[in-house]
């Protein structure tokens, strides 16, 4: 069984690998540059879910991939401010795509204002934290939780929700 993840982002690959290893899947995980086909900065639950599903479903069209994972970050407006959100999708040939959402935190107003003005969170977080490529490391969630929950751990939880919903991994 071949499994792909629709990203080359190390935080996403690490999350997928760690959880697949935990459930006994020890074969290679194939990272693919999968288009999300949503905006660079998804601005709603719907857009972020769609991005995760598009990434996973694209991977199934590449080579002989049996199962594919898509992980996507975004933000959404709430009456309490702009929240960081994350979703995952697990696509499998001949089956309905499984979806799960992860932890969400409110972003500081100075970050939210820049995103509302059209900037992307990745570069804004680099600027704010002075850490290069923060989106591939602890991520915004890691910065704003002082390392209590880093981006890979947050995606790991989503991965558990995905593989858990699929159920039986013995074939
Ligand atoms: O520093 C960050 N910490 C985060 O927690 C986070 N969540 C989202 N984003 C940014 O939101 C956009 C879409 O996210 P995204 O998941 O589609 O893309 P990504 O660039 O992170 O990965 P990938 O496209 O290589 O797979 C991109 O501008 C990301 O940089 C984050 N940046």
Describe the protein in words.
The chain is an alpha/beta fold. It has one domain (3-106, 149-166): Maf protein, CATH 3.90.950. Helix content is 40%, strand content 21%. It has helices at 10-22, 45-60, 109-116, 121-129, 139-144, 151-166, and strands at 3-5, 29-31, 67-78, 81-92, 98-101, 105-106. Strands 1, 2, 3, 4, 5 and 6 form a 6-stranded mixed beta sheet that branches. A hairpin with a 5-residue loop joins β4 (81-92) and β5 (98-101). α1 crosses α6. The longest helix has 16 residues, at 45-60. It is globular, with a radius of gyration of 16 Å. The ligand O=c1[nH]c(=O)c2ncn([C@@H]3O[C@H](COP(=O)(O)OP(=O)(O)OP(=O)(O)O)[C@@H](O)[C@H]3O)c2[nH]1 binds next to β3, α4 and α5. The site of the ligand O=c1[nH]c(=O)c2ncn([C@@H]3O[C@H](COP(=O)(O)OP(=O)(O)OP(=O)(O)O)[C@@H](O)[C@H]3O)c2[nH]1 has 21 residues, from β3, α4 and α5. Residues 6-157 form the Non-canonical purine NTP phosphatase/PRRC1 domain. It is an enzyme of class 3 (hydrolase).
Question: Tags for this entry?
Answer:
single chain; 171 residues; alpha/beta; Maf protein; six-stranded mixed β-sheet; 40% helix; globular; binds the ligand O=c1[nH]c(=O)c2ncn([C@@H]3O[C@H](COP(=O)(O)OP(=O)(O)OP(=O)(O)O)[C@@H](O)[C@H]3O)c2[nH]1
